[in-house]
Recover the amino acids of this structure.
């Protein structure tokens, strides 16, 4: 039997490592960016991280794994931008590759669908509706 506390501790360590890796990559990108670039054009990984944790409980209630990926990506795109949403999606799949879940290419495709829809979605409700229709529960 798996010790849930030990599993949670390992998961949190991984999240922290991935977060710092993403923050480092953002810093490198900012250093290389033109000093004339606007702040809004630079990555907002902190925004995406914050909202990913904020929306996690809401998204976990959805019926399928792909609808969860799609919806979270849509939410994050609406709040923080598509690039930031994509980074969070890739980090999640990377964590899955390390043994913290089930990594699938289809998850990245669902993320992409959510990102594309997120640019035009009028609300989080619209994101949920789109994604649950696109990835319905299998009978």
């Amino acid at each position: 039997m798996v010790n849930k506390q030990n599993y949670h501790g390992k998961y949190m360590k991984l999240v922290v490592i991935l977060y710092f890796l993403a923050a480092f990559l953002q810093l490198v990108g900012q250093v290389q960016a033109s000093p004339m670039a606007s702040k809004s054009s630079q990555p907002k990984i902190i925004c995406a991280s914050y909202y990913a944790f904020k929306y996690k409980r809401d998204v976990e209630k959805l019926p399928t794994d792909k609808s969860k990926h799609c919806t979270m990506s849509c939410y994050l795109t609406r709040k923080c931008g598509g690039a930031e949403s994509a980074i969070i999606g890739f980090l999640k799949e990377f964590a899955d590759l390390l043994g913290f879940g089930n990594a699938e290419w289809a998850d990245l495709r669902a993320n992409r669908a959510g990102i594309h829809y997120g640019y035009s979605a009028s609300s989080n409700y619209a994101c949920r509706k789109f994604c649950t229709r696109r990835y319905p529960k299998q009978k």
Notes: The radius of gyration is 16 Å. Residues 30-39 have pLDDT under 50 and may be disordered.
